[in-house]
Recover the amino acids of this structure.
């Protein structure tokens, strides 16, 4: 059920109280006893190896982009993680290892907690009744899958947060532009500063999702493209003298910000990722001999040095 504007204004204090209460509950559920169990479980034995290689600087190859892994590594290192000395993920008996896993699990836990207020805010932004918005947030809060994935360090939870953030921001950035709906549309700019900032934020959120995992975020990319095509179709259908100029300006701005931001983020993260991995590792053979020659300790690097 949707609200009329007067009902929406009257319900705001209760929505703020509900938002704060659910956020605290989400943080409590996902952070409580985060160090338990003290051995790597489920996919932690896989993702944890990447954190160890970041710590040792050994090059590795992974089919997924690096953002989730980098966020977990930065957070864990700031809280005392020291690679294999903290948790031997590559041990032949990983379940016998006793590790302090809270530092590595903190990022997924915080992302999982943030999903609850984000679900509530997104439902409210769509104009749903406060009870309907609270029900949506409640389902995210208590769902056992969301709770479980939030408490182990995987790529999935950060990506789900970026996907949810993309959808939330698109509720604002993919609305009919103010210039098209204004009474004096010809006097208004085709793209306002607010529009540009919202589009940039949406593009960065989309880029964050794509830089955690490609597969699940591609559907979000397609959905966002359809949303923007609807906006451009609305501008094209408007009977205004300058609609062509507005249409071209909107199309160019949306294309540059929504697609350019993920590309720039990808290149920046790739540079950071490679800067952490200067040494030869088990991922060398996935790439060319010319690239392997840039890694310290690789056999091709020794040959290039000898030829020089």
């Amino acid at each position: 059920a949707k609200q009329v504007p007067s009902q929406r204004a009257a319900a705001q204090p209760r929505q703020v109280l509900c938002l704060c209460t659910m956020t605290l509950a989400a943080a409590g559920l996902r952070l409580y006893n985060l160090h338990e169990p003290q051995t790597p479980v489920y996919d932690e034995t896989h993702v944890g190896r990447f954190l160890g290689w970041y710590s040792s600087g050994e090059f590795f190859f992974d089919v997924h982009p690096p953002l989730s892994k980098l966020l977990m590594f930065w957070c864990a290192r700031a809280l005392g993680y020291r690679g294999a000395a903290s948790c031997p993920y590559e041990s032949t008996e990983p379940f016998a290892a006793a590790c302090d896993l809270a530092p590595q699990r903190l990022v997924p836990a915080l992302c999982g907690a943030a999903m609850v207020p984000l679900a509530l805010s997104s439902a409210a932004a769509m104009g749903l009744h406060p009870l309907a918005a609270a029900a949506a947030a409640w389902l995210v809060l208590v769902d056992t899958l969301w709770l479980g994935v939030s408490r182990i360090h995987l790529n999935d939870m950060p990506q789900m947060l970026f996907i949810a953030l993309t959808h939330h921001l698109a509720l604002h950035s993919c609305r009919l532009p103010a210039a098209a709906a204004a009474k004096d549309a010809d006097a208004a700019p085709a793209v306002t500063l607010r529009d540009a900032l919202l589009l940039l934020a949406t593009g960065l959120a989309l880029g964050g999702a794509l830089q955690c995992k490609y597969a699940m975020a591609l559907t979000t990319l397609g959905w966002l493209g359809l949303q923007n095509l609807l906006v451009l179709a609305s501008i094209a259908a408007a009977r205004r003298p300058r609609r062509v100029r507005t249409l071209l300006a909107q199309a160019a701005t949306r294309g540059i910000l929504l697609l350019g931001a993920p590309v720039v983020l990808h290149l920046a993260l790739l540079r950071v990722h490679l800067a952490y991995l200067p040494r030869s590792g088990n991922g060398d053979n996935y790439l060319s001999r010319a690239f392997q020659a840039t890694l310290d300790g690789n056999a091709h690097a020794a040959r290039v040095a000898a030829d020089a």
Q: What stands out?
A: The chain has 14 helices and no strands. The radius of gyration is 23 Å.
